[in-house]
């Protein structure tokens, strides 16, 4: 739920307490904190003070909220209108004038005015009345200050409790200026609440503008030009006689910079020209922008198909080759259709079908309209009935942006439309009309050449095995992310069971978060099992999921593997996780040379080849950022009396290599980090430990938690290193070891409960 709530503030309490504590230390007191109208919306009332102090407090409060939020994976927003259909975020300012010598509120009238201009002003002083008149007269001319962005004017619209006219009212919460005074308030609390400013406004400029306009009214002894809003009346009602405030930044800036603008009189030409110029630049940028709303509403296109033409064995038009799609875009396709239509009876029918799709689908784009759906269904069924089995060979996909997917299923010799299905692309939907080829090719596919299949990685605050509907919440969050194609290079073992470790957990997690994943291994059976498990856990992935066989010790294999990502737009992230720890790996005396060479070829050369070709791919596709994550180990940081010399040396080499590559490629935007896991509860280690209880205990005792790590805990670290949330994390030995490398004597007692892996 949202709105005023007693229970919602109980969530994220540590975050709120962090804000309160920090603000208290900064002497930025928070007098009130409560939920507001809108999901996730809170109102904070800052402790009052003199004008420059309040501007400091408002700016410092915003900075504190944003800074503390980063520790909790929260992205706070002071945007004026972050969501359509809900009220926006405001920045109300409460102002009064106080005599510095006496401390008296200069807006309060000690004796009731028996003949005020309006009854609501009977306890407002002459200074207060002139101050209010100055605000009302100057407000339309300073709108770019209180509403400085294009988005600001999405908040200032009717029917959302926002002030949209030059208006005032006694205790009126819809007016631009709310008068708070006796008899409903104490004398010393007499003040004006200026409600036009948004949360996105600069508090220094807003408070300065309010003071200048108000005092201008006092000096000129201005009188109030509009009557108050009636009690209970909305803005725009019978009592609202004020002019409509600017509806856009462009309109507001033009009035702000006009030669006769109050802004020029109040602030001077130099400020108006400079600040107005910045707003004009903002308007030009907006005028040139193409929004998601426009793209969704106006683009229509046809996807590429596997072939460009096919033949119909129609008795009325033998041996006529026609284009694969009924709605051609190329001139040669149009010519082919024209020739085909000339030899086919029912030319009007074909043209009618064409018109139906173009006219109803593209122009109106409204599949909620039953008439449209029926017209389209009738046209499609008639067309398929006309061509009978000839249509079995027709393969085409026609995409219209802006309307939901319709699944077209085969119904005997005809086709019919069934229920709409949700597109896998969040906030985007498509209509796809498809013909049928023999076999299972009777499903709608998500093909759209104008939209790269880039998907955001979202760092989950608490992981769970989510369903497809749950995943929508991740994609609607606003945390910063990296559009990602992941190349996960896993174990070089031929044992399929070993793919149940870090590599598979990472692939599942990335797929779950919407990335396209290419999973590589030397073992075909291992990849088959991994893909099966991945499809079980992420049955409706937003990105593409593919596998490829690769021996990372061979550069030609690695090169071919990385080049597979060219079709996806190149490599964004590579996780070089392939590695072996051979049973014959011993100390310097007993380790066979062939075991040493095998270990270095896979653990070191494999990382080198993967890093090399990932960089080449990123350069080829002109990437400005990328993340290369190489699996090292804590054995590269600490010594062990249990010898595994080749493995330890290889992981030390990975650390050194990663560190150097990170420095070399930093200014290209490519980050290199080495993941350093402690011993994990994976098949690789558990098979090595076997049933040797003493061998197992010697390792478990060094963990402060009393247990081995889990693969999912490493996968979460990889997700972080891949995302934009780690954009300043580079050249690190990223240790995820439960404190093992920092421990000396660990506590007694039972181990902690491990998290559940995804591929359990």
Automatic annotation (TrEMBL):
Which InterPro entries does its entry note?
Answer: Gln_synth/guanido_kin_cat_dom (IPR014746), Gln_synth_cat_dom (IPR008146), NAD(P)-bd_dom_sf (IPR036291), Sc_DH/Rdtase_CS (IPR020904), SDR_fam (IPR002347)
> What Pfam families does the database record attribute to this sequence?
adh_short_C2, Gln-synt_C
What residues does the GS catalytic domain cover? 1-325
UniProt entry tagged with the keyword Chaperone: no
* Record has Nucleotide-binding as a keyword: yes
UniProt-listed GO biological process terms: biogenic amine metabolic process
Listed transmembrane segments:
none
SUPFAM superfamilies per the record?
Answer: Glutamine synthetase/guanido kinase (SSF55931), NAD(P)-binding Rossmann-fold domains (SSF51735)
**Which keywords annotate this record?**
ATP-binding, Ligase, NADP, Nucleotide-binding
GO terms, molecular function:
ATP binding; glutamine synthetase activity
Entry-linked PANTHER family: GAMMA-GLUTAMYLPUTRESCINE SYNTHETASE, TYPE-1 GLUTAMINE SYNTHETASE 2
Q: Which family does it belong to?
A: Belongs to the glutamine synthetase family.
**The protein's name:** GS catalytic domain-containing protein
Name the species this protein comes from. Answer: Cryomyces minteri
């Amino acid at each position: 739920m949202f709105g005023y709530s007693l229970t919602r503030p109980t969530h994220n309490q540590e975050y709120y307490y962090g804000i309160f504590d920090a603000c208290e230390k900064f002497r930025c007191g928070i007098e009130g904190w409560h939920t507001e109208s809108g999901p996730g919306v809170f109102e904070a009332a800052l402790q009052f003070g003199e004008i420059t102090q309040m501007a400091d407090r408002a700016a410092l409060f915003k900075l504190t909220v944003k800074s503390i939020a980063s520790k909790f994976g929260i992205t706070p927003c002071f945007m004026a209108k972050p969501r359509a259909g809900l009220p926006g975020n405001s920045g109300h300012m409460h102002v009064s004038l106080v005599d510095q010598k006496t401390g008296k509120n200069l807006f309060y009238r000690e004796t009731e005015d028996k003949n005020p201009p309006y009854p609501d002003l009977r306890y407002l002083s002459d200074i207060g009345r002139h101050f209010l008149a100055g605000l009302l007269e100057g407000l339309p001319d300073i709108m770019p200050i209180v509403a400085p962005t294009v988005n600001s004017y999405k908040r200032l619209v009717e029917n959302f409790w926002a002030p949209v006219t030059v208006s005032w009212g006694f205790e009126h919460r819809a007016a631009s200026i709310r008068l708070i005074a006796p008899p409903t308030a104490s004398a010393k609390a007499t003040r004006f609440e200026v409600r036009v400013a948004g949360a996105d406004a600069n508090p220094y400029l807003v408070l300065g503008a309010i003071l200048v306009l108000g005092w201008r009214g006092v000096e000129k002894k201005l009188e109030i030009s509009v009557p108050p809003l009636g009690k209970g009346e909305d803005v725009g009602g019978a009592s609202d006689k004020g002019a409509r405030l600017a509806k856009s930044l462009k309109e507001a800036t033009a009035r702000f910079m006009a030669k006769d603008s109050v802004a020029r009189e109040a602030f001077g030409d130099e400020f108006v020209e400079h600040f107005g110029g910045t707003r004009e630049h903002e308007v030009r940028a907006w005028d040139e922008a193409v929004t998601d709303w426009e793209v969704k509403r106006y683009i229509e296109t046809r996807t590429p198909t596997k072939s460009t033409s096919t033949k119909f064995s129609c008795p009325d038009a033998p041996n006529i080759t026609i284009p694969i799609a009924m709605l051609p875009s190329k001139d040669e396709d149009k010519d082919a259709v024209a020739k085909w239509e000339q030899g086919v009876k029912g030319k009007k029918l074909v043209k009618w079908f064409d018109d139906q799709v173009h006219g109803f689908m593209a122009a109106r784009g409204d599949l909620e309209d039953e008439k449209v759906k029926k017209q389209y269904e009738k046209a499609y069924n008639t067309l398929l009935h006309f061509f009978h089995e000839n249509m079995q060979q027709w393969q085409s996909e026609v995409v219209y942006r802006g309307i939901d997917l319709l699944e077209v299923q085969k119904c005997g010799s005809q086709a019919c439309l069934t229920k709409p299905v949700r597109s896998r692309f969040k906030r985007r939907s498509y209509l796809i009309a498809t013909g049928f080829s023999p076999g299972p090719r009777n499903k709608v596919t998500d093909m759209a050449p104008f939209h790269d299949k880039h998907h955001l990685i979202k760092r989950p605050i608490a992981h769970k095995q989510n369903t497809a509907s749950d995943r929508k919440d991740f994609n609607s969050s606003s945390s910063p992310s990296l559009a990602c194609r992941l190349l996960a290079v896993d174990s070089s073992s031929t044992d399929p069971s070993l793919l149940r470790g870090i590599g598979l957990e990472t692939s599942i997690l990335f797929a779950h978060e919407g990335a396209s994943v290419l999973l590589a291994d030397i073992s075909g059976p291992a990849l088959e099992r991994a893909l099966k498990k991945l499809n079980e856990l992420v049955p409706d992935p937003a990105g593409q999921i593919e596998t490829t066989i690769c021996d990372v010790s061979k550069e030609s294999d690695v090169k071919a593997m990385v080049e597979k990502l060219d079709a996806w737009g190149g490599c964004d992230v590579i996780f070089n996780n392939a590695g072996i720890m051979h049973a014959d790996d011993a100390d310097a005396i007993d380790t066979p040379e062939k075991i040493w060479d095998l270990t270095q070829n896979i653990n070191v050369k494999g990382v080198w080849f993967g890093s090399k070709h990932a960089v080449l791919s990123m350069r080829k596709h002109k990437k400005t950022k990328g993340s290369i994550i190489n699996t090292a180990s804590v054995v590269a940081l600490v010594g062990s009396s249990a010898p595994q010399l080749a493995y330890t040396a290889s992981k030390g080499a990975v650390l050194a290599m990663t560190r150097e590559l990170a420095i070399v490629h930093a200014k290209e935007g490519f980050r290199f980090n080495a993941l350093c896991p402690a011993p994990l509860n994976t098949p690789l280690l558990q098979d090595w430990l076997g049933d040797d209880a003493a061998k197992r205990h010697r390792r478990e005792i060094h963990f402060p938690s009393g247990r081995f790590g889990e693969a999912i805990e490493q996968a979460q670290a990889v997700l972080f290193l891949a995302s934009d949330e780690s954009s300043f994390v580079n050249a690190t030995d990223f240790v995820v070891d439960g404190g093992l490398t920092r421990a000396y004597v660990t506590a007694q007692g039972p181990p902690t409960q491990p998290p559940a892996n995804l591929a359990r």
